[in-house]
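name: query_chain
kind: protein
chains: 1
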Amino acid sequence: MTRRTILIIGGLILVGQLIIFSDYISPIQWGQIKIRGLACTCPDESVVNGQLYLKSITPDSLKKYDFDYSEIYVTKELSTKIDPMGVDYYIVTGKVIGKERVSPTDPWNPVVKIENWRAISLIKDWIIKILFFGQIVILLLATKGRKRVHNNVLTS
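structure:
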């Protein structure tokens, strides 16, 4: 197989996996927010992916405030039987409905009304990321040009 064929096939496989496993490896979450629970007296959840999406769904009436989109308050407590404290990863959809802050000197954080949510397995998250980036390394190594000599003819 030529390098070009390997790149095309490998690239298509990686793009397909990026679409299928977008909850785990996509750096951009559009239409949803990937969050992780916080166990403190601060905002409820830490935003892992989706800060840009959060900014886009913030109502114009709230955009005049200086928001910190890295942490949010939520209207629904997220937890599962495996994670009763709610500190695992979750994919949520919802709307920004207000603002809150811990103290008068802290920045504002958005309050998100959760419409739908689902838990993400932390183990599956890491396994998929390791396999995906491992495939990228293998693809790069497979396409790396090596000079070979066949019948006294130098090829690359």
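note: The first helix runs from residue 3 to 20.
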